[in-house]
Design brief:
214 residues; alpha+beta; Multidrug-efflux Transporter 1 Regulator Bmrr, Chain A; nine-stranded antiparallel β-sheet; two-stranded antiparallel sheet; 5 helices; 30% helix; globular; disordered N terminus; binds 2-acetamido-2-deoxy-beta-D-glucopyranose; signal; cytoplasm; Heme-binding protein 1
């Protein structure tokens, strides 16, 4: 009996950690050993709905009038931090930004690096860490380079698609999510995320209304 409960305990810990996992499980993840994994709830022509478990990140804020400038500064700071502490690089890297910041107006940009499995349970300097809550997100993927104009245009496309099906999301901010180093030229993968509010909506509002009736 003691053996059994020990085993259950181990399995629970393993499951809790399992959402940061081997990048071979995610085909867009090609440059790091470990990646953030998720459950796909549904997929339409315009977006995916994903569920992410709560995990630990290291984050930094950068105040700037430019997303591009803020990302470079924040990336250098976080990269320095993980190098000093011997923490491996993971993917993706997220940048949280307000949808209310317009061009050339100062905004706060929060960049986060996902901590690898070995640092999830024993954070190094807790004051530098941030826990992302368990969350569901609407996701739109795109290739090429993530820059302030590509990110904004993709965020706009995603929010229009969500509005057209009556999906509820927090439109005050979104995440710009990158999976590649700036040195990588081909097969780049980027995403935009909006955080789901209430129940996620998959498909058109007509389909949804029909499913209520049936
Ligand atoms: C990831 O998975 C691949 C293939 O399944 C395996 O060869 C590799 O050793 C794994 N890496 C880690 C860090 O577990
Ligand atoms: C939306 O996000 C903002 C910024 O994080 C937060 O202050 C606000 O409470 C959120 N709105 C809802 C309805 O959760």
């Amino acid at each position: 009996r003691i053996y059994l409960s020990g085993l259950v305990g181990f399995l629970l810990v393993f499951t809790a950690e399992a959402r940061v996992g081997n990048s071979s499980e995610l085909n867009v993840c090609t440059e790091t050993e470990q990646c953030l994994l998720f459950d796909l709830i549904c997929k339409t022509d315009d977006y995916e709905v994903r569920h992410y478990d709560s995990v630990n990140w290291v984050s930094t804020d950068e105040k700037s009038w430019s997303m591009d400038y803020a990302s470079i500064k924040a990336f250098r700071r976080l990269f320095g931090y993980i190098k000093r502490n011997n923490i491996k690089m993971t993917a993706p890297v997220t940048l949280k930004l307000s949808d209310k910041t317009s061009f050339f107006r100062t905004g706060i940009y929060t960049m986060s690096f996902l901590l690898p499995v070995e640092h999830q349970q024993s954070p190094i300097q807790p004051t530098d860490e941030k826990v992302f809550p368990d969350m569901k997100v609407y996701v739109r993927s795109y290739g090429g380079w993530m820059m302030s104009w590509t990110d904004r245009s993709q965020a706009k496309t995603l929010s229009s698609a969500l509005d057209s099906v009556g999906a509820e999301y927090n439109g005050s901010f979104h995440y710009a999510v990158g999976y590649n180093s700036p040195m990588t030229l081909f097969k780049r993968h980027n995403e935009v995320w909006y955080v789901v509010q209430d129940e996620p909506v998959c498909g058109s509002s007509e389909e949804r209304d029909m499913s209520h009736i049936s």
